[in-house]
Amino acid sequence: xxxxxxxxxxxxxxxxxxxxxxxxxxxxxxxxxxxxxxxxxxxxxxxxxxxxxxxxxxxxxxxxxxxxxxxxxxxxxxxxxxxxxxxxxxxxxxxxxxxxxxxxxxxxxxxxxxxxxx
Amino acid sequence: xxxxxxxxxxxxxxxxxxxxxxxxxxxxxxxxxxxxxxxxxxxxxxxxxxxxxxxxxxxxxxxxxxxxxxxxxxxxxxxxxxxxxxxxxxxxxxxxxxxxxxxxxxxxxxxxxxxxxxxxxxxxxxxxxxxxxxxxxxxxxxxxxxxxxxxxxxxxxxxxxxxxxxxxxxxxxxxxxxxxxxxxxxxxxxxxxxxxxxxxxxxxxxxxxxxxxxxxxxxxxxxxxxxxxxxxxx
Amino acid sequence: xxxxxxxxxxxxxxxxxxxxxxxxxxxxxxxxxxxxxxxxxxxxxxxxxxxxxxxxxxxxxxxxxxxxxxxxxxxxxxxxxxxxxxxxxxxxxxxxxxxxxxxxxxxxxxxxxxxxxxxxxxxxxxxxxxxxxxxxxxxxxxxxxxxxxxxxxxxxxxxxxxxxxxxxxxxxxxxxxxxxxxxxxxxxxxxxxxxxxxxxxxxxxxxxxxxxxxxxxxxxxxxxxxxxxxxxxxxxxxxxxxxxxxxxxxxxxxxxxxxxxxxxxxxxxxxxxxxxxxxxxxxxxxxxxxxxxxxxxxxxxxxxxxxxxxxxxxxxxxxxxxxxxxxxxxxxxxxxxxxxxxxxxxxxxxxxxxxxxxxxxxxxxxxxxxxxxxxxxxxxxxxxxxxxxxxxxxxxxxxxxxxxxxxxxxxxxxxxxxxxxxxxxxxxxxxxxxxxxxxxxxxxxxxxxxxxxxxxxxxxxxxxxxxxxxxxxxxxxxxxxxxxxxxxxxxxxxxxxxxxxxxxxxxxxxxxxxxxxxxxxxxxxxxxxxxxxxxxxxxxxxxxxxxxxxxxxxxxxxxxxxxxxxxxxxxxxxxxxxxxxxxxxxxxxxxxxxxxxxxxxxxxxxxxxxxxxxxxxxxxxxxxxxxxxxxxxxxxxxxxxxxxxxxxxxxxxxxxxxxxxxxxxxxxxxxxxxxxxxxxxxxxxxxxxxxxxxxxxxxxxxxxxxxxxxxxxxxxxxxxxxxxxxxxxxxxxxxxxxxxxxxxxxxxxxxxxxxxxxxxxxxxxxxxxxxxxxxxxxxxxxxxxxxxxxxxxxxxxxxxxxxxxxxxxxxxxxxxxxxxxxxxxxxxxxxxxxxxxxxxxxxxxxxxxxxxxxxxxxxxxxxxxxxxxxxxxxxxxxxxxxxxxxxxxxxxxxxxxxxxxxxxxxxxxxxxxxxxxxxxxxxxxxxxxxxxxxxxxxxxxxxxxxxxxxxxxxxxxxxxxxxxxxxxxxxxxxxxxxxxxxxxxxxxxxxxxxxxxxxxxxxxxxxxxxxxxxxxxxxxxxxxxxxxxxxxxxxxxxxxx
Lengths: 118, 234, 1041
Prior knowledge:
Chain B is mainly α.
């Protein structure tokens, strides 16, 4: 199970990279990066997964005394939340940049923004 | 074409790195040291039933503070970028948009309070059930989104949003600092009694912090949405 | 002590607080922002004070009331404190600098700035990996925001490229972090470090991903196109922060990661660092745009620090001192330069000429460049010294070579820039002198000097800012507002006083050099009275050179020797640069000199083998086969200064184009520094063999060839000062030859040359300079017949050339006499023949000098010329007197030296009895020679006057206009191309082969840089490909290793 999730995650990252590196349209690049970010999040969660265990919430089903034997690793779950939020932030920022770029230059082609070089 | 080939070649390299990561991966059978500590001590030390929440708000509270800041920052920058654009475009007359359908209008009237309620529920119970400030905040913002969908020209008070997010942020930090004074360190949740596990009023200040995070996240997402929607028609 | 977490809480809290203010209350918001940054700086500063001087210990700060590794913890130690102080101060100054922009953009921009500063502090303080990631992302996002502050429209595109790259980085980083966590079960950096074996077994790939991602944050060459674009287009205040603050924070993050990686990852860091250092410096050579140049230089410097981090295993206790020194120097200077760039309108390097009207800003510029290059007394100098020594002691010679090579390129383009600023035609644009911006620049200057003082105090070699001569030189900076005559008097008094103070302690050898440098220097300074006005910049430079020279001859250990060497080099560079057309020559001078200095540094480092307090005398105890290499490095270094053939091409331009009173200083005095170095070297190390070749024998040949070719090139010069300059190459060749003979008389002769060359070269340069001043030209064929108009100059030149050519009766003859005696005692005959040949050639150029200037026909336009200014003539007359006295009683100085030399070469000394000097081959009686020659001269003169008593004077007329006007009038002048026949015969020897070689080398470097930099194509997507390519290549190399 965790292998499947992890493999999927890695493949998503690679797909995202491929999309980001071959599409010249900036919006497509951003979407490709969100795909890659999703892949990363999947990998993060997959690392915390343990077979046959349950979510790390203590209740009647998981008494405190048995917690260590019953729950999966809670840390990746905490990390992934942060990662998601940061991903959202960066994506929003990139979109704002695109908006501004388009407003000033009227183009969405990344290869049109090469006035700084060498 | 050559570019695609180069990219494919590079991705093959990266893929090889990932592949060997995958092959070298063996799932744990036991919780590792850190996770075990959390499993065994959270209930007693923090008093939160949801261990993930305990980690997010307390053990790794500094991360969360950073996370909230990321949203704050993004909202501020998006505001900055789009405000610059708006100043330039303010003279231009705004495009008249067609009215949204009756279904949407009625639906949103019905749903908006419910969504807001759900959002509040999610973040208030963050220490007990799956969910929390971020999720709740996102749900709150989705109500705003719905309202914007219904009436794109609807005006939201930027001032209110920004005051809301600022106050929530300040309270978060103040509680963190109170932790230094009254408990074991920055963001220690035990400045209030930890209560009994599973109760709404338990886990020290976690519900309070998480509520304000919820408000803050909701405000920040809303601010981004509002800012983006105001570019509409310009 | 305030809890360090308040740095973060203050930054964040204030950022949130700003949201409560109304958008219109900008003054209030700005005030709050400044107050918050000041508070953060103060907290950091109080920690620095407590940890460095208060004896406080490193503190771990727990959050959430739980101990690590179960909760995030922060650490405040000395490096953290210094870096957070740096970050916060840089941000505070940036906020001041950005005042107008901040007012325009409002509270949101201020909040972003605060969060940027806070996040950098977070990177520095945190001990948790994931927390590190969060803070990194915060800096990325706030960078995205701050880029928008720029007025440059291109910044937007640059920002987007940056975001693309950071997306790639953060993906790799996250994957790396989670797998490292899986391998070790913790996210705590120290926890991981203690389990690093586990991590490196199962998760070395995971570590690789983390490591490469954080390293990519350093913008390593060549995967850094996006960073360069930001450096170029962002607001300079932000570029300053990015380079100084963000760069430092990211370096510290790498340092933390290396704790986990352990020693096996150090070579990777080293390799990436050194490639960045050299590559970025090389590319910077081809840059014209100021901010992009600074961007390249930032990348190079950060690469250098990364290289130092990679040497952690051998640096031991001095690790922080060295890495910190280089980092701090980089941060302060780069911030300063970026801030300065905000005052300049144009973006070309040459647009910085606008600074020229403002001496204080020029001083700031010099301070920043010196900091960056690592000149004494700045921290980079101490750090580089220690670094190179450790590398040499640990046999990392390759790395040592690469570092010095990169540093030389860097010094090359920075000094070239300085040359542009001082010499290029000034643009009409003025500097935009808004007081708060200027104040920020001065803030950086003060920080730079403070750092210099602190690093000096921490140095085991002693603080250079405590040495009296240097302070005296720097003191002139404060006196710049005084007129020349006052400063000149102070300078002369200073030199003489230092000589008197030191007099009792000098041994005879030092005494000779001290007399030439200090008393001789004071004599030349007499001529400086002829300048009017304030002459800004002259005295600090000249005194820096003299200070270096004075410290050089009394230096006991290698460090003070080298520090003195660099001071005199830099001082003389500034002096030479003052000449009207000397920009390219000063540049080649400084590059050759620094190259030579680096060889000396490497030589000392090899010799010391890790001994930090290395006495010069200990050079003698260096064992084979190392000693030969040490000898060679030092000898080449010193010979660069004496302009031996092969490394001579800097000399003619530098000496000829310098100002009238500077030429004698740099020729008569400065060249002696190289000779002193050679004396010191040979005295301590003696003869050395490398692969069976006697190295002193090689030096003998170099000396002979320098003498021959130097003289030969001199005879074909049209420019009088150039002629004198080339003749210096020949003269130094003689001295080198004498030293390399390694016998008593050879050394005596070399010392004789030290004195003689000083006197006659100074005198000739002064008189030729005076003539050039009056005639407005230095071309000899444009002069002629000046004997009646400038009789005193004529006498000086006449006496001078008699002395130089070595004919009786003047002291030059004494030199020759000792010389021939010396040759007779030496074993090598072939180079001797060459040096014999050089003698008559010297006579040719001297003849030309006096003949074409003073004899022949007077030019029309020169009819009303007056004698050279009094203050130029006065020292010449003193020299004439000296030459005459020295000719009569050479024993005054020489006999002491002669007996002093007995301890090195007991045999073949001279016998000084009364006024006669005896060697094993014959005797020399100066007085009787003087009498005999005097009588002959008087007789011949009287006879000539008698036979010519009825001679009729022919008025001159101008035959050039008799027919048509020739295309190049000078071709009809007899004095033009004076020795054309000789040129036909011997000209092939003076083919500028060496010049061509060095030119080809620099051209190669430039065109390489020009070609390779096309790699930065400007496309953000391609940059992302570069980045991934970088990751894959490093991975393959690491796996391959």
